Amino acid sequence: VYLNLKEPVFHQIMYGTLVSIIVLRSVYIVLWVYPWLRGLGYTSLTVFLMGFFLWNVDNIFCDKLRALREKMPPVVGAVTQFHAWWHILTGLGSYLHILLSLYTRTLFLKHRPKVKFVFGIWPILLVEPPKKL
């Protein structure tokens, strides 16, 4: 749809470039700067890439998926809206990446960050000021 229009293609390329830079920065941080954060870094990347994968499946097989959804019960059809999953998973992956970035920044500033889980599932960052000597 967008291939005939110059401006949307430019925006898609710039978005892809930005995402690539962010991914490379994250890989650098978790491999060389703060290797103990690999779990959080890889989780955010995996969740984001799962959304990207589902979005591409939806783009490639859109007509077939639409025809298949018409034959399914409405609840199953709603769950197979992979474009919607793209938004959910990239939003979650982005949140986790922001959490990783905040964690690394507070470490750099000599604060004491801790990841806590609200209701055992939702990660948040708690930051304690640096210890005074």
Describe what you observe in this structure:
The longest helix is centred in the first third of the chain and has 28 residues, at 6-33. The chain has 133 residues and is mainly alpha-helical. The protein has a two-stranded antiparallel ribbon. Helix 2 packs antiparallel against helix 5 (82-108). The chain has helices at residues 6-33, 38-60, 62-71, 74-79, 82-108; strands at 112-118, 122-128. The termini are far apart. It is elongated and about 70 Å long. It has one domain (8-127). It has five helices and two strands; from the N terminus they run H-H-H-H-H-E-E. Belongs to the alkaline ceramidase family. Its cofactor is Zn(2+).
Summarize the structure.
The protein is mostly helical. Helix content is 71%, strand content 11%.
